[in-house]
Amino acid sequence: MVTARRSTLTLAVFCFILFVAAIGWGLAQQPTAAPPPAAPAAAPAPAPKIDSGDTAWLLTSSALVLLMTAPGLALFYGGMVRPKNALATIMQSFIILALISVQWVLWGYSLAFGPDKGGIIGGLEWIGLRGVGLQPNPDYGATVPHQAFMVFQLMFAIITPALITGAFAERIKFSTFIVFTLAWATFIYDPLAHWVWGVGGWLRGWGALDFAGGTVVHISSGVSALAAALVVGRRKGYGHEPMRPHNLPLTVAGAALLWFGWFGFNAGSAISAGALATSAFVVTNTATASAALGWMFSEWAMRGKPTVLGAASGAVAGLVAITPASGFVTPLASIIIGAVAGFLCYNACNVKTKLGYDDSLDVVGVHGVGGTWGALATGLFATKAVNDAGGDGLFSGNPAQMGPQIVAILASWVLAFFGTVIILKILDATMGLRVTEEDEVAGLDLSQHSETAYALESPGYGITSGGAFAEGMKPPPKPTMPA
Predict the structure, then answer these.
(1) Is residue 349 one of the residues assigned to a domain?
(2) For FRET with 154, which of 63, 359, 441, 469 sits at 20 to 30 Å CA-CA?
(3) Which is it for the CA torsion 415, 417, 423, 429, positive or negative?
(4) pLDDT in tens, 130-157
(5) Domain count across the chain
(6) Is residue 447 situated within a structural domain?
(7) 477 dihedral zone (left: phi>0; alpha: psi -120 to 50; beta)
(8) Are 167 and 226 in contact (CB under 8 A)?
(9) Where does residue 47 fall: left (phi above 0), alpha (psi -120 to 50 degrees), or beta otherwise?
(10) Nearest-CA neighbor of 61 among 192, 212, 168, 283?
């Protein structure tokens, strides 16, 4: 068993090294253009000036995206697990707010958006936000303070690893989860964000379009979730015991908060308060509505009844799919993108039961598949009529745009999958990934946090979801009959 595990780790490391080496070789083979003739001296460009409206919109959008993680995602995931794991699941989303907020300031932002190093990673010149001040950085927002852009991007860095937690819900050790989150953010998210969005990033240079995070956020989290589900393994009793959501009202409330916050996610990515932000806002809402209907009608046709959980999941699938395209497509195109996302993601979530992997909360089917479709749809439906800076897609007469989109998808899949496998294998060998069988049966609320989500009304009495009284608490006295 040990030999097999070491062989798997060795293979994963080898594939990952080959992948990074291939990227470096590809960059080295790019022809160097001849230097253009010297242009006559031009008048110096005016200094960037902060616009209060753009700044207010970006800060508001940052707050909206923060709301997506906690309470949005926390409630969405928390309602879908069994009651004995509700607090632990909510805690994972909540504590990521704290972890990544510190990581991003110390080194994450510098790695993701700092001065380019070979198209692969940002340098450490901005470590601790050194040089990231209150004046605009023209590369990332000519009308907003640099720190406003930084904190907006922070919210993306927070929610992405939080999405992965749905894949290993109800069985991972909290201590290992902490280290995994920091390692994944540093070695997967930060480089990928630089590839796609950082000045000098190789995917950005190749013309890949990703307005608000189809590759960086959703493909990376969905594919990493697949790797995590395979490496961590199934929950005890999976396939034999009922593991239904324990509180669907929480889940629907969380989905509604995600829908609300996503306007900051997509429309905020315009960086300014203007026409492009308006367009992104409109298509975000339209695609989400279309996907909720697409999932609901697909489920209705195939299972005979529509479900509340299906409608909520469909809305999230639409939000995922429209994210990379939101700054490049028309409202009519967003209806198609959303409807296809609802149908595809519904069927993708059903496939996991046939394949046998335990993706607890359907991160792969919604974010991995939805993000992949959204990135492809961007290459299909993008039009200069919406965003001249983005260019046209296939249906607007530019089939060449599909090339960079496919390369970005494949690069994101490979980095996320093999990078996550390596991180998890190392943590499994050093810290262990899973709680003990006894702790898993008791539930993570009690075993990892010594708390329970639900208690009897009588003060001083607590009860676990499995019916056992929590540690340090006594059962209520039996009622006595009147004399």
Answers:
(1) yes
(2) 359
(3) negative
(4) 999 999 999 999 999 999 999 999 999 9
(5) 1
(6) no
(7) beta
(8) yes
(9) beta
(10) 212
* Cβ-Cβ contacts under 8 Å for 289 (sequence gap 6 or more): 315, 318, 338
Contact 170, 193 (CB under 8 A): no
Distance CA 460, CA 474 (A): 8
Nearest CA-CA partner of 197 in 215, 171, 223, 174: 215
Do the beta carbons of residue 190 and residue 108 sit within 8 Å? yes
Q: How confident is the model at residue 17 (pLDDT cuts 50, 70, 90)?
A: very low
Model confidence at 11: pLDDT above 80: no
Of the candidates 119, 122, 161, 124, the one whose C-alpha atom is nearest the C-alpha of residue 20 is 119
The length of the chain in residues reads 483
> Domain of 135?
48-437
**Distance between CA atoms of residues 350 and 354, nearest Å:** 8
What is the pLDDT, as a whole number, of residue 479?
Answer: 44
Q: For residue 384, what is the domain's CATH number?
A: 1.10.3430.10
Q: What whole-number distance in Å separates Cα of residue 165 and Cα of residue 146?
A: 31
Helices within 79-118 (DSSP H only): 86-103, 109-113
Distances (CA, A) of 174 to 2, 359, 439, 468: 24, 18, 12, 22
pLDDT given for residue 42 in this prediction? 52
Q: DSSP secondary structure string, 149-181?
A: HHHHHHHHHHHHHHHHTTTSTTTB-HHHHHHHH
What is the DSSP code (8-state) at residue 454? -
With tokens 């009529």, the residue in question is 385
Other residues' Cβ atoms within 10 Å of the Cβ of residue 14:
11
- Cβ within 8 Å of residue 142, ≥6 positions away: 48, 136
The DSSP result for 390-440, as a single string, is T---GGGT-GGGHHHHHHHHHHHHHHHHHHHHHHHHHHHHHT-SBPPHHHH
Domain for residue 40, yes or no? no
The pLDDT mean for the chain works out to 89
The model's pLDDT over 342-351, given as tens digits with 9 standing for 90+, comes to 999 999 999 9
Q: What is the end-to-end Cα distance of the chain in Å, rounded?
A: 66
Q: Give the pLDDT confidence score for residue 456 in this predicted structure.
A: 56
In order, the DSSP letters of 309-372 are HHHHHHHHHHHHHHTTTTTT--HHHHHHHHHHHHHHHHHHHHHHHHHT---TT-HIIIIIHHHH
Report the distance separating Cα 327 and Cα 283, nearest Å: 9
How far apart CA 272 and CA 479 sit, in angstroms, is 64
User: Identity (one letter) of the amino acid at 320?
Assistant: V
Question: Does some domain include residue 465?
Answer: no
